[in-house]
Amino acid sequence: MALVLVKPAHACGFWTLVDTEKKLEVGWLINAGTVTKGDKRLANMYLDLDAKTGVRVAADHKVVFDVRNAKILRYGEAIGKVDADTVTIGKHVYTIELTEPSFDKGLDDIHILSWKLAVHRGDDVIITAAKASSLCAALRKGGMTDAEQQDEVRRRVVFYLAWRERGM
Prior knowledge:
The protein has one helix at 146-166, and strands at residues 15-19, 24-29, 32-37, 40-48, 56-59, 62-68, 71-74, 77-83, 86-89, 92-105, 111-121, 124-133. A hairpin with a 2-residue loop joins strand 9 and strand 10 (92-105). The chain contains one helix and twelve strands, in the order E-E-E-E-E-E-E-E-E-E-E-E-H. The longest helix is centred in the last third of the chain and has 21 residues, at 146-166. The N and C termini lie far apart (33 Å). By secondary structure, it is mainly beta.
Protein backbone atom coordinates (compact mmCIF):
# COMPACT_ATOMS: atom_id res chain seq x y z
CA MET A 1 0.00 0.00 0.00
CA ALA A 2 1.45 3.35 -1.06
CA LEU A 3 0.67 6.62 0.65
CA VAL A 4 0.84 9.78 -1.44
CA LEU A 5 0.86 13.17 0.20
CA VAL A 6 -0.16 16.16 -1.88
CA LYS A 7 0.66 19.72 -0.92
CA PRO A 8 0.82 23.03 -2.78
CA ALA A 9 3.85 23.56 -4.99
CA HIS A 10 5.76 26.22 -3.11
CA ALA A 11 8.00 27.25 -5.99
CA CYS A 12 5.07 28.16 -8.21
CA GLY A 13 2.73 29.19 -5.44
CA PHE A 14 -0.72 28.60 -4.10
CA TRP A 15 -3.46 31.00 -3.16
CA THR A 16 -6.93 30.79 -1.71
CA LEU A 17 -9.99 32.67 -2.91
CA VAL A 18 -12.74 32.94 -0.25
CA ASP A 19 -16.40 33.34 -1.19
CA THR A 20 -17.70 34.91 2.01
CA GLU A 21 -21.29 34.93 0.77
CA LYS A 22 -21.54 31.22 -0.10
CA LYS A 23 -18.94 30.12 2.47
CA LEU A 24 -16.80 28.45 -0.21
CA GLU A 25 -13.06 28.41 -0.84
CA VAL A 26 -11.07 27.86 -4.01
CA GLY A 27 -7.50 26.68 -3.60
CA TRP A 28 -5.56 27.64 -6.73
CA LEU A 29 -2.51 25.70 -7.84
CA ILE A 30 -0.68 26.33 -11.08
CA ASN A 31 -2.93 24.05 -13.15
CA ALA A 32 -6.11 23.61 -11.09
CA GLY A 33 -8.58 25.11 -8.69
CA THR A 34 -10.47 23.10 -6.09
CA VAL A 35 -13.76 24.43 -4.74
CA THR A 36 -14.50 23.31 -1.19
CA LYS A 37 -17.02 23.92 1.56
CA GLY A 38 -15.43 22.91 4.81
CA ASP A 39 -13.92 19.46 4.24
CA LYS A 40 -16.20 18.69 1.28
CA ARG A 41 -14.83 19.08 -2.25
CA LEU A 42 -17.49 20.44 -4.61
CA ALA A 43 -15.57 20.83 -7.86
CA ASN A 44 -12.19 20.73 -9.55
CA MET A 45 -11.34 23.13 -12.34
CA TYR A 46 -8.42 21.87 -14.40
CA LEU A 47 -6.63 24.60 -16.30
CA ASP A 48 -5.32 24.34 -19.84
CA LEU A 49 -2.20 26.47 -19.59
CA ASP A 50 -1.08 26.00 -23.19
CA ALA A 51 -3.99 27.64 -25.01
CA LYS A 52 -2.81 30.48 -27.27
CA THR A 53 -5.79 32.61 -26.20
CA GLY A 54 -4.91 32.33 -22.49
CA VAL A 55 -5.68 30.07 -19.57
CA ARG A 56 -8.98 28.19 -19.79
CA VAL A 57 -10.77 25.39 -17.93
CA ALA A 58 -10.94 21.95 -19.55
CA ALA A 59 -12.29 18.51 -18.66
CA ASP A 60 -12.36 15.26 -20.62
CA HIS A 61 -10.62 16.91 -23.61
CA LYS A 62 -13.35 19.58 -23.83
CA VAL A 63 -13.09 23.28 -23.01
CA VAL A 64 -15.49 24.01 -20.16
CA PHE A 65 -14.85 27.72 -19.50
CA ASP A 66 -12.98 30.20 -21.66
CA VAL A 67 -12.81 33.95 -22.25
CA ARG A 68 -12.71 35.02 -25.91
CA ASN A 69 -13.38 38.42 -27.41
CA ALA A 70 -14.65 39.63 -24.03
CA LYS A 71 -17.23 36.81 -23.87
CA ILE A 72 -17.33 34.20 -21.13
CA LEU A 73 -17.94 30.83 -22.74
CA ARG A 74 -19.27 27.65 -21.14
CA TYR A 75 -18.85 24.68 -23.48
CA GLY A 76 -18.57 27.19 -26.36
CA GLU A 77 -21.77 29.11 -25.60
CA ALA A 78 -21.68 32.68 -24.31
CA ILE A 79 -22.92 32.98 -20.73
CA GLY A 80 -21.52 36.40 -19.90
CA LYS A 81 -19.04 39.10 -20.72
CA VAL A 82 -15.91 40.74 -19.35
CA ASP A 83 -15.22 44.45 -19.71
CA ALA A 84 -11.93 45.30 -17.98
CA ASP A 85 -12.66 44.62 -14.29
CA THR A 86 -16.43 44.18 -14.75
CA VAL A 87 -17.87 40.69 -15.17
CA THR A 88 -21.50 40.13 -16.13
CA ILE A 89 -23.08 36.68 -15.97
CA GLY A 90 -26.82 36.67 -16.43
CA LYS A 91 -28.27 39.42 -14.25
CA HIS A 92 -25.29 39.50 -11.89
CA VAL A 93 -22.61 42.15 -12.31
CA TYR A 94 -19.31 41.74 -10.46
CA THR A 95 -16.30 44.04 -10.17
CA ILE A 96 -12.85 42.55 -9.67
CA GLU A 97 -10.49 44.76 -7.68
CA LEU A 98 -6.75 44.05 -7.44
CA THR A 99 -4.91 46.34 -5.00
CA GLU A 100 -1.81 46.47 -2.82
CA PRO A 101 0.70 44.74 -5.13
CA SER A 102 3.53 43.05 -3.27
CA PHE A 103 6.37 40.62 -3.90
CA ASP A 104 6.65 37.48 -1.82
CA LYS A 105 9.82 35.43 -1.72
CA GLY A 106 9.28 31.79 -2.61
CA LEU A 107 11.68 28.88 -2.82
CA ASP A 108 14.90 29.37 -4.75
CA ASP A 109 14.54 33.13 -4.19
CA ILE A 110 11.73 33.33 -6.76
CA HIS A 111 9.73 36.51 -6.18
CA ILE A 112 6.01 36.14 -6.75
CA LEU A 113 3.92 39.24 -7.48
CA SER A 114 0.55 39.16 -5.74
CA TRP A 115 -2.40 41.46 -5.10
CA LYS A 116 -5.11 41.81 -2.53
CA LEU A 117 -8.31 40.69 -4.29
CA ALA A 118 -11.87 41.81 -3.69
CA VAL A 119 -14.88 40.96 -5.84
CA HIS A 120 -17.84 43.29 -5.45
CA ARG A 121 -21.47 42.75 -6.40
CA GLY A 122 -22.92 46.20 -6.00
CA ASP A 123 -21.71 47.57 -2.68
CA ASP A 124 -21.08 44.14 -1.17
CA VAL A 125 -17.68 42.44 -1.14
CA ILE A 126 -18.50 38.78 -1.68
CA ILE A 127 -15.11 37.27 -2.58
CA THR A 128 -11.66 38.00 -1.17
CA ALA A 129 -8.09 36.79 -1.31
CA ALA A 130 -5.19 38.15 0.71
CA LYS A 131 -2.58 37.18 -1.91
CA ALA A 132 -3.89 36.49 -5.43
CA SER A 133 -1.08 35.78 -7.86
CA SER A 134 -0.29 34.61 -11.35
CA LEU A 135 0.86 31.06 -10.96
CA CYS A 136 1.87 30.69 -14.61
CA ALA A 137 4.43 33.50 -14.62
CA ALA A 138 7.23 31.15 -13.62
CA LEU A 139 6.45 28.86 -16.57
CA ARG A 140 6.52 31.47 -19.31
CA LYS A 141 9.88 31.88 -20.95
CA GLY A 142 10.83 35.50 -20.52
CA GLY A 143 8.27 35.94 -17.76
CA MET A 144 5.00 37.85 -17.88
CA THR A 145 4.25 41.56 -17.63
CA ASP A 146 2.28 42.84 -14.65
CA ALA A 147 -0.75 43.26 -16.94
CA GLU A 148 -0.49 39.65 -18.16
CA GLN A 149 -0.23 38.43 -14.59
CA GLN A 150 -3.30 40.44 -13.58
CA ASP A 151 -5.17 39.03 -16.58
CA GLU A 152 -4.42 35.49 -15.40
CA VAL A 153 -5.68 36.28 -11.89
CA ARG A 154 -8.85 37.83 -13.36
CA ARG A 155 -9.42 34.77 -15.58
CA ARG A 156 -9.21 32.48 -12.55
CA VAL A 157 -11.80 34.66 -10.78
CA VAL A 158 -14.01 34.71 -13.90
CA PHE A 159 -13.86 30.91 -14.11
CA TYR A 160 -14.90 30.62 -10.48
CA LEU A 161 -17.75 33.10 -11.00
CA ALA A 162 -18.90 31.14 -14.08
CA TRP A 163 -18.86 27.92 -12.05
CA ARG A 164 -20.66 29.69 -9.17
CA GLU A 165 -23.43 30.87 -11.51
CA ARG A 166 -23.76 27.92 -13.90
CA GLY A 167 -21.83 24.93 -12.52
CA MET A 168 -19.70 22.66 -14.65
